[in-house]
Amino acid sequence: MRFSVNTRELNEAVSVVTKAMPSNATLPILEGIYMYAANDTLFIKCTDLSLQIETEIPAIIDDEGSAVLPGKLFSDLVKKFSGDTIDFESDGNTMNIRSRRVKSSIQIQNADEYPEMMRVDDEFSADIPQNKLKSMIKQVIFSVSNDETKAILNGVCLEFDSDNTLVMVALDGFRIAMRKEKINNCTGKKSVVIPKRAMQEIAAVLSSDDSEVKLIFSSTHIKIDFGGTKVISRLLDGEYVNYKGILPKNFATRVLINCEELKNSTERALLMAREAKSNRIKLMFANNTLTITANSEKGNINDEIEVQLVGKDLEIAFNATYIQDVMRVLDDECVYLNMNNAVTPCVIVPVEGEAFYYMILPVRLFTGA
Amino acid sequence: MRFSVNTRELNEAVSVVTKAMPSNATLPILEGIYMYAANDTLFIKCTDLSLQIETEIPAIIDDEGSAVLPGKLFSDLVKKFSGDTIDFESDGNTMNIRSRRVKSSIQIQNADEYPEMMRVDDEFSADIPQNKLKSMIKQVIFSVSNDETKAILNGVCLEFDSDNTLVMVALDGFRIAMRKEKINNCTGKKSVVIPKRAMQEIAAVLSSDDSEVKLIFSSTHIKIDFGGTKVISRLLDGEYVNYKGILPKNFATRVLINCEELKNSTERALLMAREAKSNRIKLMFANNTLTITANSEKGNINDEIEVQLVGKDLEIAFNATYIQDVMRVLDDECVYLNMNNAVTPCVIVPVEGEAFYYMILPVRLFTGA
Prior knowledge:
The structure is a homodimer of 369-residue chains. Chain A is an alpha+beta fold. Chain A has 3 domains: 2-113, DNA Polymerase III, subunit A, domain 2 (DNA Polymerase III, Chain A, domain 2, Roll), CATH 3.10.150; 124-245, DNA Polymerase III, Chain A, domain 2 (Roll), CATH 3.10.150; 248-360, DNA Polymerase III, subunit A, domain 2 (DNA Polymerase III, Chain A, domain 2, Roll), CATH 3.10.150.10. In chain A, 18% of the residues lie in helices and 43% in strands. Chain A contains 6 helices and 26 strands. The longest helix of chain A is centred in the last third of the chain and has 17 residues, at 259-275. The model of chain A has no long low-confidence stretch (mean pLDDT 95). The A-B interface holds A 70, 73, 76-77, 80-82, 94, 101-107, 264-265, 267-268, 271-272, 275, 297-305 and B 70, 73, 76-77, 80-82, 94, 101-107, 264-265, 267-268, 271-272, 275, 297-305.
């Protein structure tokens, strides 16, 4: 195996694929980077057996071949190489790497021992602009459950419909986050659940422009094809919970509120609520004013925001971090808070359209709050 | 107690004084911020009994008084206040704080119970530009010993001489860092040792311009007077170690080297050395070339730098982090590495002048390295 690549291109490729590299693998070879050089191309990949990221860069190849290099050492080292190109040459046990006046020899592992991910047959597919997919993931992923006893909730549910819509859902028993967007070339109706970690790494690889990526599904895996780069993840087994029945439809109190003001007031109140180790803040809606209060043994806080209130006055309490999580990811200037009473959920929806739907359960309201 | 202050000015003042606030104080009142309002001025301070930072801002005062507020809660809260001014009013038990539509009541503690730092009588003083003092601290502090059994080495030694020079020294048994600068209005000869934490916080408060600050010493304390802001620290008891006798004077090998190149090569070699958990790199000086090598079970690295070598060829090994620490803080393009043999220290000095002097002990050289 003997080839040369551009240092900057190699660094970019390594930083993409190592997102899938586990840091404490039970199988040591998984802490490596798989390389295969052939046809003027260096192909590299990492996998933790659940998630795989692979990519390719142009290479000048004198001798084809494959090898697995120690991932952390190699990726740290190539970051520090200052030459424009890096030359690689392997004798089967060692990879000799050379760039300008730096020479390094690194022990390699046999590429034949590197586990192969299952091939992802194209049973179902859809196209979506990268920036749209990136924003959808960011706006639901914080609601994924971390409770390992509820495996299916440790992922994000994607519901494709044949009318070219994608609904993305995450829920953890206390809140639901939903995003809905138009997509393209959707080949039918399908519901899948993708692990949270895969979704995080997919979002990290996605660019912020509107170039399209293809989502390809087999019965067990998803593959996202970026052209040179491909991300493959297994899907979570089982049916996602049927959340649709619990979404409230009619509301006694509807409040139009500025997101930035709600975010700032919630953050201030949370500082006081945190002292009480409860994160509990109280919201009082009356006279077109929202009054947010919190207290602890160190004191109390009282914060007012002008709102447009339609319907009944209401007192309701929440875990402030749940409101904060939603306000942090929204770009909208204003939203509606839709509620019924102090013991049923609050629903946060856009002023127009139905791009998102957040539902947050209240916490118990104490008179003293 | 009733007064108003500008929100931005209060935030800046709070962020300065809380650098001295301990996060886990044995005396709970020390986790508070002391406030005293009088004469159109709000005076605030924090101390951990070893270090005190105090400052003042203009205030509109209706009723003079003092109080101690819970430090973390109060400083986090005022950061989130959006109004231009904040109004304070205390009834002795509670501080009522108001800014625009936000109201908060915070439990306060009696200011009489807040410990008073010793007054710092002006027994000795000197003036120094802030940027010069800041750079001196940065360039020696990393060599302070963290070994708590050698208390005197847990500080930075400042040696003032009546010819208006200041020498700053830190050493940890494996290396020495020294900086020397001209200062102004030095009232005599004096040697003091200031705790590392105080030096860090002093550096953080110092600005990057050349306005002068006055260093004032009593027999037990230092006070740095920035005008409104004053930093007071106790001095460490005892004599600093007599390091002057061990500084080598004559060298068999003198090497002129580019700092950036030495830093980059050391960092690359360290990545390999770290795999061997030794951080040990070998330096070979010969034929106007420095060859840096390191090896581990995962491989080896060999890096060449052009140098100007005067004197004998030499092979010597170091803990790479000690070289890295020096190269990270120097702004010089080139330095001299002065050495004698593989078992005596390497001295790093400037190309011209004597602004700094670093001494690093070598580690044992193995033939296999």
